[in-house]
Amino acid sequence: MATTRLAIVTGGNKGIGYAIVKDLCRLFDGDVYLTARDVGRGLAAVDRLNGLGLKPKFHQLDVTDAGSVAAFAAFVADNYAGVDVLVNNAAIAFKAAATEPFGVQAEETIRVNYFALRSVCDALFPLLRAGARVVNLSSSAGRLSVIPGEELKRKLSSPQLTVDELDALVRQFVDSAKAGDHAQAGWPSTAYGVSKVAVSALTFVQQRAFDADPRADIVVNSVHPGYVDTDMTSHKGPLTIEQGAEAPVYLSLLPPGESDVKGRYVWCDKTVKDWCQC
Known about the structure:
CATH class: Alpha Beta
Order of helices and strands: EHEHEHEHEHHHEHEE
Strand content: 5-15%
GO molecular function: carbonyl reductase (NADPH) activity
Number of helices: 8
Family: Belongs to the short-chain dehydrogenases/reductases (SDR) family.
Protein name: carbonyl reductase (NADPH)
Pfam family, one: adh_short
Strand order of the largest sheet: 3-2-1-4-5-6-7-8
CATH topology: Rossmann fold
Distance between the termini: 45 Å
CATH architecture: 3-Layer(aba) Sandwich
Oligomer: single chain
Keywords: NADP, Oxidoreductase
């Protein structure tokens, strides 16, 4: 089993994920895995990075497929002493012109952006080594202020919030979206926004669990990478993918013993924001 340090990036074949892999290949002392749902696109991305003199490794990972997630976790467990960096980047966003009913958009967006991310964490968190760094890609749309309902805000920001309670809240959103009464229930009309609010809230719950974990110095943060020129933004964002990678990579490489930037919501300029107020 390799004693080499290990960094993993989900959804790494394009956009911000690709740029994060590129930077980690240059800055992280260990193996960097570019993972992607599609093997062909993943290997093509590795080839492009090889052309830059970088040496990422590749493994197929469809974050929405339980078998794929389990297979990847088994591969990591069999070949490495543990995980040192995990960047949960894979996500989807429906376009503004999407014709699918809002209930369909809500269900699919929550399935991929929240529940699939959580399943990757469930599979890989037991493999994290002491001192590991986890980065959950959120968004400016993932601020608590996106939620209109005061009672929902109170529940989502509760320091006693559990994963089960958060799961139930996002399921309520999907059910309300399907029923067409999500606005009356206090939810916004943005499936992507709710998914990223949930990712941000999950991050705080995860850090509380790590704080009680016998493995020392495990840090998880959520990050708004900025409005980046990617397929997801229909190339409307002003930032390059390299600029979008800066804050996630910074959080991936936080020094040992980090106590301030820990379980926080971090902006693209690397500053910590008050999730409940910003």
